[in-house]
């Protein structure tokens, strides 16, 4: 019976891991599709601008050719004021289209440079703002923005990334002049790691009312919980440390029990520590509760 129970739990864990991998793959595919749609939309607008520009250029050329064939000052004086206004209007429209065409080319170039991250705004082709969305378990969370100056050199102008994320340090480690995407990829990992840990803490508080959160910090890189062992009237102090800030899983789990000094070294609690290292904390606590390890 015990072997069957373990097999069932392992099978359930494998199923959960498969679902998690599937969700991660789906999120990645959704992001790739959105990036492709954004790039195609920019290309569509660029082509439309080019077509309109060519049409008006043809009209302007035809008008100029017509004037040349007529020649003479007398014929020029006979041109109606309304026609002059139309020509002025066409020239103004041409200039606007040419400016829009240049802007779209700069936008498409910037979109290519930063590796497909969404561009929220641009200023005369010299500045772009990349948006980095965060998500956890299929739920989209906060979106952060980083604004870059593209000329004369690529540099970060401003951002709304939390101050405890080392943006400047990450920028220094990356060669943004040739590969902004490497910087954005690393920054995205930091932001998603933070968002995932923060979301886990929220789920622990919502789903595990008997678990007392004793300590956590703004980066959610440490989590100290007080767990109650049912039937034994003892409490366990469990500390999770996340030294890799790009991940949602802890790099160290430490257990203390004042009432029973030997409990942390027991096989059961060693298995619990391994579970907490390999499983998101809110899910690990649910498994431990279902096994009657904690209240």
Automatic annotation (TrEMBL):
InterPro entries membership: CENP-O (IPR018464)
Keyword Nucleus: yes
Organism field: Xyrichtys novacula
Residues in coiled coil: 23-57
Name of the protein described by the UniProt record: Centromere protein O
Main localization category: nucleus
Keyword Lipid biosynthesis: no
Domain of life: Eukaryota
GO cellular component: Mis6-Sim4 complex; nucleus
Family: Belongs to the CENP-O/MCM21 family.
UniProt-listed PANTHER family: CENTROMERE PROTEIN O, INNER KINETOCHORE SUBUNIT MAL2
